[in-house]
Structure formats: C-alpha cells, structure tokens
Amino acid sequence: MNNSRLLKEWKQLIKSGNKYNITPITDEDLTHWQCILQGPNKSLYQGFNFTLKILIPIDYPMSPPQVKFIPNTMPHPNVDWNTGVLCLDVLKNMWSPIFNLQYIVECVIRLLNEPNGDSPLNLELGTLLRLGDHSGYNGLIKYYLHHHQSHHGDANIII
Amino acid sequence: MKAWETLDTLKILQTHIKKSDSNRIMTEGYTYDYSDDDSADSIEFYNSGHLSPSTRKDHLTKATKVTSILSQESGFEIDDGLYSDNDYDDYDQAYLDNVLAEPISSQEKKELSKGTVPNLKYECLTTQNIFENMLGKVNHLQPIFNIPSEDILILLQHYDWNEERLLEVWTERMDDLLIEIGINPNHGKSIDKLSTKDKINDDELNQATGASRDVVFKNKFYCIICCEEKSTETFALECGHEYCIDCYRHYIEDKLHSGNIINCMGCSLALKNEDIDKIMGHPSSTKLMLSSIKSFVSKHNRNYKWCPFADCNCIIHLKDTSSLAEYSRLHYSPFVKCSHSHKFCFTCGFEMHAPADCNITNAWVKKARKESENLNWVLSHTKECPKCSVNIEKDGGCNHMICSSCKYEFCWICEGDWAPHGKSFYQCTLYKNDETNGNGTKTEDVAKTMKKYTFYYRMFNEHEVSAKLDWKLGQTVGNKVKALQEKMGISWIEGQFLTDSIRTLNEGRTALKWSFAVAFYSDSSHNLTKIFVDNQSLLSKAVEDLSELLQIKDPEVIMAKKTEFYNKTGYVENRTYALMECGRDLLCKGICKSG
Predict the structure, then answer these.
(1) Are residues B43 and B143 in the same domain?
(2) A62 and B250: CB-CB below 8 Å?
(3) Are B91 and B178 part of one and the same domain?
(4) Which residues of B are catalytically annotated?
(5) Residues B96-132: tens digit of each pLDDT
(6) Is there a domain that residue B38 lies in?
(7) Per-residue pLDDT at B355 exceeds 70
C-alpha cells in the first residue's frame, strides 16, 4: 500500500475544492472512501444524490480501486441494482496507474450520462435501452428513483 | 557404462541425421528454419536486442532435442517419403545402418497398415516452439511491412498471431493501425497524433528532453504514480511520460501474465520487448511472449491441445481436423502421443481409452463419479490370504498371488484358487449373470444393475491399480536393462525387448481396463458381446502371464527366457488389437450404447 500517493491525492482534492465530495470515511484509514454524487444536470438523475463507495486495494495504484453504489439506489443499465456493482472499463482492463480517484468519479458521472446497453448489469433497463423504448426506459428509471430514493438534496447516506 | 556411452552417441547421431528432416516438419508453411545456412534473418532478429545470441543457441538445442525424440518414438507420424537422398548425403553409411537397425514395434506397423482411417498428421510442440514459429512469421512479414521486426511482433501479438488478419488490416489502414496499436511510426519525431489517456496529469508531466526508451538516473525525481520524490532510475518512451523504475516494474510485473501488449501508463504507446527487458533488468519479455502464446493455444483449442498429463508442457498441434469426424463415425479415437510418450485422445483429452470411444468413456467416467458418491468404495490395496488370513499387500501388477506365509496360490480379483485360472480361461473377467428368475421386482432390478455396475467398476479399478503398479515395474525394468548390459555385456538394442514388453503390457492393461466400460454398456444377451467377453478373458490371461514374466529379477534368467518374452509380448499385442477391433465392432453395430 502506497500511503504517500493516497495522502497526496487527498491533499490535492482539498486544495482543488473537492467538487465531487470524495472523502475518506475516517481520517485514519485511507483505504475506504465515499463520494456523494449529485445526479448530473439535464439527466434523469438530476436532483438526486447517490453515495459511491470506494475501496482501495492493497496494491493501488497498480490495481484499480473497487467502486460501487450503495445497493438498491442506482437504476442504471450498467449498475447491478441489488449489489450496486458497476461495469466500467477503466476500473477493469483499461485501468492505468496514472488514473486517480477524481478521474474515476468523473468516469462514473460520464457513465451516468452515457449508458451502454450492450453490457448491462441491469437487464430490464439494458433491454429497454437496446430496443430504443425511451419512454419505457425513462419511466422505469423514474419509478426506481422515486420509490427508493429520497428527493431533492436529502443525501441518502447510509453508514 | 560403455554401453550407455554408445547409446548416447547413437542418439546424437540420430538427432543429426533426422534434424534436417524434422526441420521440414516444423517449418511447413513457415519460412523459419533452424539450419544455419539460410537463417541470416533470424540471427539478425535475435541480435536486434530481443534475445541474446546465447539464448538462441539454447533454444536451438532444445528444439533439436524435442524433434529427435519425436522422430525416435513416433515412426508413424513421419512419412517415409520425406527421407530424400539429400538428407543422407552428409553422413556416413555406417551411421545410417545404425539408424535403420532401430526396431520398429509391430504395434506401430499395425497402426500404419490399418488404413481404414487416415493417419493423423500432428506435431508435438512446446510454447517455445510455437513462439519460434511466430518469429518465422515475423521474418516472413518483415520485407512486406518494412518496419522493425520488434514492431511486427507487437502487431502479431495484438492480432492473436493471426498473420492473415494482420495483413488484411495492414493493407487497409497501415498508418492508423500503427497509431492504434501504439507503435510510433516516426520514432520519436511526432507524438501529437498519439491519444493521451487523460489530461489531468499533464501539468505534472515531465516532458522528457531526448530521454526516450532508456533507463536514466535522476537525482531528484518526482514520480506521479507513487507520489514520492527520490533519487531513482526512470524510464520514459518517446511520449515523455516518465515514471520511476519501481513503479514501472510493478506495473509490468502485473501485466506479464496476461499476454497482452503493455502500454505506457500515460498514453497508448506500446512498450517493446527490448524496453521491457531494459526496465526489468532481465529478459522478462519472454514471459510475456509465452503467456501470449498460451492464450493463443487456448483460443485455438480446435487444433491445439495441451497434453493432459500432470506437469507435461507439450502441445499437440493437429493441422487438419477434417478426419476427426471420420474417426468418431467409425468409433475410432484419435490418440496422439506427445514427446514425453504420453498418449491421449485428441477429441476428449482423456487417456488412451480404446476399445471404448469418447461417448462411452464420458458416460463411464460420469457414472463412476456419480456412483462413488452413493457407494462407499472400499477397494483397499490389501487383502487377507483366503487360507491363512495374513494381510497381503499387492506390490506388483500380476494378479497371480502366492501367499508368502502359507504359499497358497490364489487370484487377487476373485480370491479363489489360482489353479483353474492358469489352465483354462481366466474366469475372473466373466460376470456371472444370475438369471435364475426372469420376473424380478423393480427393486431387485435396481439392485441387479447396481451389482452389475459394481462388478464392472471393480474390474476397471483393479486394472487401473495394476496399470499403476506396472508403471512402477517399468522403472525397475530400466534398471534391469542396465544390469543386463553390465553383467552380460549385451548391447542396448538387445536389451530393448524388456522395454518393449513393459510398454505392451501397459497398453494391454489400459485396453483391458476400458473394455469393462464397453462391456458394461453392451447388451449382454448379444452373441457379439459374448465374443467380446471371451476376447477380454484371453487378453486378461495374456497380460497376467506377461506381467508375471516381468517380475523376474535375475538378468541371466531374463536372457535365457528372451524368446518367451518375445512370444508373450507379441501375443499380448495381438490380443489387445483383437479386443479393440471387437469393441469397435460392438460400437459400430450399436450393441454397445451409452444412452
């Protein structure tokens, strides 16, 4: 475990204003992080907050961090609804040690805006997306969001 | 010891004589050649930094060793037609005579003369051999591509060593391809075309000044991967993404097993093999190449099969798989032999399972796995002597037991008196179908099938254990041959009959073992099944006799009984062949079905 790298990333995050709220869960332990993600503007997720859990592996930055949403909070074709696990190439085979936590969070936000129907973890949403059933797709996401998430800024923090 | 020396020289001579021949087999379709006269290209390639000349020499010796074993042991895969006069010209006639004197076992003759299915043409390779073939492809492509060989290697690696696909893409979009794969076409002159992975760290990027593709020492270097400032060696490609050597080593070490191209951590520029070796400080790129070849083999599992034997690294390459369908239609199995003499079925990857075909084998193995969960198989290696109840451990392959305390002679399988076994048929292979009452209830039927299965499984198991013990016996045979040579002063060739016997014995046992799987699935009322069972008995008897003969330890007795060895070995061979053919007949006529 390379602590100076994580420490440096933490300092850099504070210095740059930390716009994605990426914070370690406790100050002593830099291996468990959490990020309160605001649903991107003009997306179906606008107005909702999502908690992203980040686990740093022992050989970080040679191995990518493990990133997942809190289970049953994120309706998205590339996110497993029940476990919160997400499918993102930069977190798997495309990972490079040069990437940092902020970049990963940016990638997750990009994924929220650009869902990929070809490798779905949420099969219903993936199918709707592939079939081009936009109203069905949007409707299902809205249904999920309104029934499982608190509205407007009430950050859904589960510790 | 003199005899061993002659043996070694003989082997070396054989290697020499067959070398040019085997080369041709290895290189069919490729331009790569081991012979020194026309391999200027390959030498150039090795000298270009990928492998040192000394390693090349090692590979050569290794390759010739493998091919020599090939040509020695598997006469059936090398066509006689390949021996042209030119191959012999350089060698003395005397050496040639030695080679020709090498006995061809009648088993192999039989395989040649069978003729009903085409002989399989295959080659036994190692990952190293395949890699050398790939280097041959590289040399082949080099004049067409006109870029450094190392770059072609990376391109081939990217396209899973598929020459045709690479050529296709190459002709379509040459320049784009080079950029896409991360090979800088202008060698450091332009890097703006390269897609940088991300811009976030650009401000910290050490725009290297001329330091490219070399390990350099820096006094105060800040590495953005580990975030440490230290005096360290660093490495950077033309792109200028410079990182400390420790981080680079970690990064490469993790990727060596994948077999994929390793890129710069900051952009898509590819690390060449020489870069990898430079960073790691030792030739690690061979590890990467071999992992890449391994994934190639796994992806092409229709033509390439790993030898299933433990710790064996051989790969069997069957170029033409079209005859496999014919094999399975006629209930033959495509058995192949690797250069370590491991025989296995190319279709199902199981050991030699004749007379059973792949379907029967599969059904039998599955059933055995299932039944062993239901039944508690207590098939121990020790039994009590039926007469004096002393515990006896079976340490040899023969089923003819003589109790060491009371000298009672009995059969290991049925624990009955040996006397009737020796004279008439070997009774133990006959499953006595107690068909006293035709109208049994259902539970009785189930019990009967179970009993039948238990019997056949027991027989199968007994022969498996015996075969394993025979294998141990085979190792002592080696010592016996040596003892013969030392004591009696006989030549290696003359002592060969013992090794032949043990091989034949093993083949006979294996056939016998699998014949019980065939017998289990056969319709026992059919006449042909009865003939099959008779054949089983005959082989059983022959195998036991031969096994007994091989227990002799005194070299002088062995030499005295040489003709007996020949006769019994020949008999086992014939019986094995007859049993296999009979079993195949059962399968072809549909009397034996796994369903």
Answers:
(1) no
(2) yes
(3) no
(4) 398
(5) 333 333 343 444 444 434 446 777 888 899 888 999 9
(6) yes
(7) yes
